[in-house]
Design a protein that fits this description.
It is a single chain. The protein is about 40% helix and about 10% strand. The protein has about 450 residues and is of the alpha/beta class. It has two domains: about 230 residues, Type I PLP-dependent aspartate aminotransferase-like (Major domain) (Aspartate Aminotransferase, domain 2); about 120 residues, Aspartate Aminotransferase, domain 1, CATH 3.90.1150.10. The strands form three sheets. It has a seven-stranded mixed beta sheet, sandwiched between helices. The N and C termini lie far apart (about 55 Å). The structure holds pyridoxal-5'-phosphate (PLP).
Length: about 450
C-alpha cells in the first residue's frame, strides 16, 4: 500500500504488530458529584438538557485527551502518520473488540458514525443487484421506525439498485416484545410473497423515535430460521445504553456510535462485521490508499482528516471506569433513573409511558396531555422550540397519529434521556413547563409556524 506520499505499510497488513491487549479495568474510588459537574462544566447551565440521545455528551477530560492527539498530529504530521496513527487506531479497535465480545479485532472497524456504517453495509447490497447476484425485486426488510437517514440510505442503495424494501409496521405505544416479534414475522412473510429472497434485514437495537428497545436477539434468530441472507443491527444508541454482546446477538453486522452514550467526542462509531467468506466484499464508501486491504484497514485511512475522536477510546474507557461498575453501572443507573423520571412526569400529567420499563433503555417516551393540541409533526417541532425558548428545556417530541374513533388521544410523546450529568431538577422543570402550558390553556395552534 502507498501512503499519501510515501511507501509505509500498515503494521497489520504486513504482520509486523499485534494489537496491544486492553489494560485491566482500574478499580479506583468512584468519581464524586462535584467531579462529574466539573467534567461537564462546559454544558450551558441555563438549559435542562434531557436529550442526551440526539448528540451524546463528552466530558472535559476526554476533550483534553482529544486535543493532545490533535496536537501530536499538528506538531509533526509525518511522524504521526508513519508511527502513531495506525497503531493508535488498532489499540482503540482492540478495546472495542473486548467491550463487545467480538472474536477477532479484524471484525471491528472504526467509522465516523452509524450513518457511515449503514452505507458500508448497504453499498455491498447494491453491488449484489448491479453485479447480478440478486434478482430484481429481492427484498430488504426494515422497521417502520428505522432512523430517517437509514431509510434514505435504503432508498439510495437498495431501491435504486432494483431491490424492494418492506417495512415492519410496529405499534406504538407498545406493551410487549411479542407484539414486535409478531409484526416482524408478518413482514418477512410479505417479503417472501412472490417467491423472492430476503437479502437483508435491518433491525434497530434501540429505535430513535419513538424510542423502544427492540428484541434484537429474538429477531436475528427468526431471520436465521427464515433464511434471510444478511442481518444488520443499527444500534446507533447501543454501547453504553443497552447490553452489547455481538456473539450473543448473532447478527452479521452491528454498528454503534460511541459519541452518543459512550462519552466520545463527535464523531466515532464501530462497525462489527462477523468473519465469513460471504461477507468479505465490504468497503468504506470513501476509497483511499488502503482499498482492498480489508474494511478495518480501509476505514483507518480515508484521506487526510482529524482522526482524534477514534484515538481517544482508551481514555474514554478510563473515564467510565471512574464510575462504580464502569459503563455497566452507568447504564443501569441511567435506566433506573430515566424510568423513575418518566413515571414522575406521566403521573403529574395523567398520561402513560410509551412502553413497559423493561423495553426502555436510558431513554423513555412519555405521553403529553392531549389538550396541548398536537396534530402534526410540525406541531411537535413548534412545541419543542417553544419549550427551548420559553422554558430552557431541550427535549424531542414525537407525533403519533390518532387511530379512528379514539377519544382524547395522546398524540404527542416526549423522549427524555438520562445521563450522568442530569439532575432531578431538569425533569421537574420540564414537568412544570407542561403543567404551566396546560394551566394557561395553551394549544399548539397558538404558535406561529
Ligand atoms: C437508530 C439510529 N440510527 C442511526 C442514527 C444516525 O447516527 P449518526 O447521526 O451518528 O450517524 C441515529 C441517530 O440518532 C439513530 O438513532
Amino acid at each position: 500500500m502507498a501512503s499519501p506520499d510515501g511507501n509505509h505499510r500498515h503494521p497489520e497488513t504486513n504482520g509486523e504488530a499485534k494489537p496491544p491487549a486492553p489494560k485491566k479495568q482500574k478499580l479506583s474510588t468512584s468519581i464524586t458529584d462535584s467531579e462529574i459537574q466539573s467534567e461537564f462544566s462546559h454544558h450551558d447551565a441555563s438549559v435542562a438538557r434531557i436529550n442526551n440521545g440526539s448528540f451524546g455528551s463528552c466530558p472535559q477530560s476526554i476533550i483534553s485527551a482529544q486535543q493532545r492527539w490533535q496536537l501530536r498530529f499538528l506538531r509533526q504530521p509525518d511522524s504521526f502518520y508513519f508511527n502513531d496513527l495506525k497503531a493508535g487506531i488498532l489499540e482503540s479497535r482492540e478495546f472495542i473488540r473486548s467491550l463487545i465480545n467480538a472474536d477477532d479485532v479484524s471484525e471491528v472497524s472504526i467509522v465516523d458514525n452509524a450513518t457511515t456504517a449503514a452505507a458500508v453495509v448497504l453499498q455491498q447490497i447494491a453491488w449484489g443487484f448491479t453485479e447480478g447476484r440478486f434478482q430484481k425485486g429481492d427484498v430488504a426488510v426494515m422497521l417502520h421506525y428505522a432512523y430517517g437517514a437509514v431509510k434514505k440510505s435504503m432508498e439510495a442503495y437498495v431501491t435504486r439498485a432494483g431491490g424492494r424494501v418492506v417495512e415492519v409496521q410496529l405499534p406504538f405505544p407498545v406493551s410487549s416484545k411479542e407484539e414486535i416479534i409478531t409484526e416482524f414475522r408478518r413482514a418477512l412473510e410479505r417479503g417472501k410473497e412472490n417467491g423472492q429472497r430476503i437479502r437483508l434485514a435491518v433491525i434497530d437495537h434501540v429505535t430513535s423515535m419513538p424510542s423502544v428497545v427492540i428484541p434484537v436477539k429474538e429477531l436475528v434468530k427468526i431471520c436465521r430460521e427464515e433464511d434471510v441472507d444478511q442481518v444488520f443491527v443499527d444500534a446507533a444508541h447501543g454501547i453504553g445504553c443497552v447490553d452489547v454482546d455481538v456473539k450473543e446477538i448473532g447478527a452479521d453486522f452491528y454498528t454503534s456510535n460511541l459519541h452518543k452514550w459512550f462519552f466520545s467526542p463527535p464523531s466515532v462509531a464501530f462497525l462489527y462485521c462477523r468473519r465469513s467468506a460471504k461477507l468479505s466484499d465490504l468497503h468504506h464508501p470513501v476509497v483511499s490508499h488502503e482499498y482492498g486491504n480489508g474494511l478495518a484497514i480501509e476505514s483507518a485511512w480515508i484521506g487526510t482528516r482529524d482522526y482524534s475522536a477514534q484515538l481517544v477510546v482508551p481514555s474514554v474507557l478510563e473515564f467510565v471506569n471512574r464510575f462504580e461498575g464502569g459503563i455497566e453501572g452507568i447504564k443501569k443507573r441511567n435506566h433506573e433513573q430515566v424510568v423513575r423520571m418518566g413515571e414522575m412526569l406521566a403521573k403529574s400529567w395523567g398520561t402513560q409511558l410509551g412502553c413497559p420499563p423493561d423495553m426502555c433503555s436510558s431513554m423513555v417516551m412519555i405521553g403529553l396531555p392531549w389538550c396541548l393540541g398536537i396534530t402534526s409533526e410540525r406541531d411537535t417541532l413548534k412545541l419543542r422550540v417553544h419549550l427551548r425558548d420559553r422554558f430552557a428545556v431541550e427535549v424531542p417530541i414525537y407525533y403519533r397519529a390518532p387511530k379512528e374513533g379514539e377519544v382524547d388521544p395522546v398524540t404527542g410523546y416526549a423522549r427524555i434521556s438520562h445521563q450522568v450529568y442530569n439532575k432531578v431538577e431538569d425533569y421537574e422543570r420540564f414537568r412544570d413547563a407542561i403543567n404551566k402550558l396546560v394551566g394557561d390553556k395553551f394549544t399548539c395552534a397558538s404558535l406561529s409556524a
